[in-house]
From TrEMBL:
SUPFAM superfamilies: NAD(P)-binding Rossmann-fold domains. One of its GO terms (molecular function) is oxidoreductase activity. Gene3D superfamilies: NAD(P)-binding Rossmann-like Domain (3.40.50.720). Keywords: Oxidoreductase. Belongs to the short-chain dehydrogenases/reductases (SDR) family. Its EC number is 1.1.-.-. The lineage of its organism: Bacteria, Pseudomonadati, Bacteroidota, Cytophagia, Cytophagales. It comes from the Bacteria. It comes from Arcicella lustrica. This is SDR family oxidoreductase. The keyword Oxidoreductase applies.
């Protein structure tokens, strides 16, 4: 029994994603959750595919250089321009990733947009944009990658939703944003239920008030008021959200699927 425990402890001290090919969406900005996740995954030995709508050669070079400087070693990264609102774009990006690395082991979907406005002020164009990126986009990229996972009978999906999708808006997002993120929660659970017999896991993270550009629209007073309502009395760091992604992407969570993980500083305890 002692040997078994020792072997397990040794495993947990190793690089959690060594030689795993991980696709991360929405990571073009160095301040994003996607970037923070990419950097941490690289620390743990992952080979990275970074997808983003605004990706170009300059951004790709900047991302690669910054990651390698931060982690102090070379890493295998490819960056692909992809509009997740477009199903064929997603298929093409995943096909290109498989052609380059030979396989894919994990998807972390961080791509998303937010807009804060009252329901009566939301026009059809804004509603469609939020839904197309946050919900349809998540569906598209998951579907594209599930084709690969189903064939190999293995894979992990981590989708980012939001506290707004759990409690119905508030903080920085309007009702259309909350509805889109609520849909991501249900979609992820549906994937988990359908694909579990194929050894494919899917989990969702619901963050709140993470230190990204999404907070830029708040005044200092508004931010102070929000922080006052957080039991930990601060906003979260992208590295802390990345840590939750690492847990769900790795074998540390091997018996976890269909779960919703709160990363919110205690602002929503339920």
């Amino acid at each position: 029994m002692e040997n078994t425990v020792s072997e397990e402890n040794t495993k947990y001290q190793l690089l959690q994603l060594e030689n795993k090919v991980c696709v991360i969406t929405g990571a073009a900005s160095l301040r994003s959750i996607g970037y923070g996740t990419a950097e941490l995954f690289a620390v743990h030995g992952a080979k990275l595919v970074i997808l983003d709508l605004v990706m170009n050669d300059q951004i790709a070079s900047q991302l690669t250089s910054h990651i390698e400087t931060q982690i102090g070693k070379k890493t295998e990264i490819i960056c692909i321009q992809c509009d997740i609102r477009n199903a064929s774009d997603c298929d093409h990006a995943i096909e290109k990733s498989v052609a380059y690395f030979g396989t894919i082991d994990c998807l972390v979907n961080c791509a998303g947009i937010v807009k804060s406005e009252g329901m009566l002020s939301i026009n059809e164009q804004d509603y469609d944009l939020i839904m197309d990126v946050n919900l349809k986009g998540t569906f598209n990229i998951c579907k594209s990658i599930l084709k690969v996972f189903a064939e190999k009978q293995a894979g992990v999906i981590v989708n980012l939703a939001s506290l707004a999708g759990q409690r119905g808006g508030g903080l920085v997002g309007g009702s259309h944003y909350a509805a889109s993120k609520g849909g991501v929660i249900s979609l992820t659970r549906s994937i988990a239920r359908e694909f579990a017999p194929m050894n494919i896991r899917a989990n969702v993270i619901c963050p709140a008030m993470i230190e990204t550009s999404m907070l830029d629209g708040l005044t200092d007073e508004q931010l102070d008021n929000v922080v006052a309502g957080i039991p930990l009395r601060r906003v979260g760091k992208t590295s802390e959200l990345a840590g939750a992604c690492l847990f769900l992407a790795s074998d540390l969570s091997g018996f976890v699927t269909g779960a919703t993980l709160d990363v919110n500083g205690g602002i929503h305890i339920h």
